Amino acid sequence: MKPFVQIATRPEDDVALTERTAVLEFTGLAEDELIWARLDRDPFPDLRPEDISGIILCGSPFTVSDPAEEKSDAQVRAEREIFRVLDEVIAHDVPFLGACYGIGTLGTHQGALIDRTYGEPLSAVEVTLTVDGAEDPLIRAADLPETFTGLVGHKEAVHTLPDHATLLASGSGSPVQMFRVGTRQYATQFHPELDIPSIIERARAYRDHGYFSPDEMEDVFDALRDRSADLPPRLLRAFATLFAR
C-alpha cells in the first residue's frame, strides 16, 4: 500500500505527538503507512501525487482568516506549504481530509468565505447530514447516522461556500460542518480525530488561546464528560480504507 500523509501544524511537540497517536489509532494505519509532515517547521516531503494514497490535515492553533500581519513566521510558512500542496491535491485528484483548520485552509483555497461569524466554543454539538451527505461515499463507508455528536472548538468557520462545493453536514451553531469539493476532497469543522478524553487533553494545552475562559475550564470539561462522541472517528478509518491504493 502507498502511504498516507498526515499534515501537522502544531508547534507544541507534546500536542503534535498526541494528535499523531490519535490519527494512527483511528485510521488503523501503521507508523510506516502514515508519513508525518510537520509543516510549521519543515517543507512538505518530496512526494509526487502518485506516491501516496491521500492526505489528512488536522487542527491547529493557527487561524487562517487572521490578518497577514498578525500571523507568525511558522504560520506563514505552514500555509504557504499547505496551499501549494492543495494545488496538487486538486489538480491530481488526491484524496484529502481536513479537520477544523483543514476546513479553513481547503475552504480558503477553494474560494469559501472564512470568518469568525460562526465560531463555536469548545463543546459537543449535534451534526446533521444533508441529503448529499447521506449519499456521499465516504460518509456511507463510515456508516454515520443522519444525526450524530461532533466535537468542536474554533474561532473561525465557513461563512459561505463556493457554488462548486457540496455541503455534506450542518449544525445549528456553524452551518457548514462538512463539505466536499471535487470527487474526494473533504473538510470537516468537527474533529474526527478526537474523542472526549483527547479533546480535554488538547484543550488543557490551549487553555489560554481564547477557545474558552480559563476560569470556566473545568466546568466545560465536566459538561463534555457527560457526552459521547464516538462516531466521527469512523471517518478516519473509512478514509484510510476507501482510498488506500
UniProtKB/TrEMBL annotation:
Q: Identify the EC number(s).
A: 6.3.5.2
What cellular-component terms does GO give this entry? cytosol
Q: Which GO MF term does the entry hold, naming one?
A: GMP synthase (glutamine-hydrolyzing) activity
Q: What InterPro entries is this protein classified in?
A: ChyE-like, Class_I_gatase-like, GATASE
Going by the entry's taxonomy, the superkingdom of the source organism is recorded as Bacteria
Keyword set, alphabetical order:
Glutamine amidotransferase, Ligase, Transferase
What is its EC class? Answer: ligase
Q: Which residues form the Glutamine amidotransferase domain?
A: 50-194
Among PANTHER family, the record links this protein to: GLUTAMINE AMIDOTRANSFERASE YLR126C-RELATED (PTHR42695)
Record's protein name: Glutamine amidotransferase
Species this protein is from: Brachybacterium ginsengisoli
The lineage, from the top, is: Bacteria, Bacillati, Actinomycetota, Actinomycetes, Micrococcales
